[in-house]
Amino acid sequence: MDEQIIALYSKGLSNQEIVEMFKELYDADVSSSLISRVTDAVKERVMEWQNRPLDAVYPIVYLDCIVVSALHCAFSA
């Protein structure tokens, strides 16, 4: 259930909208406080990830490509 709550929250749904979705989709009554507890736990993990120490260097591979298709047709009039 937590995964569904997080998925809906990540799509921008409010806590009340998530409660309504669970009722509509699963015919399940979930409390707004349950939704808040789950989303608050995720917010804490996101904040930890955002504030983690970064490495000095990150290797990057950049690839670029151009594909040109040329078709020559000769028509005689």
From TrEMBL:
Source species, domain of life:
Bacteria
* Record-level GO BP terms: DNA transposition
* Keyword DNA-binding attributed: yes
Q: A single Pfam family, by name?
A: Transposase_mut
Which molecular function GO terms apply here?
DNA binding; transposase activity
UniProt keyword list: DNA recombination, DNA-binding, Transposable element, Transposition
Its transmembrane ranges are none
In UniProt terms, what function does this protein have? Required for the transposition of the insertion element.
- What is stated as this protein's family in its record? Belongs to the transposase mutator family.
User: What is the protein name given in its UniProt record?
Assistant: Mutator family transposase
In which organism is this protein found?
A: Glaesserella parasuis ZJ0906
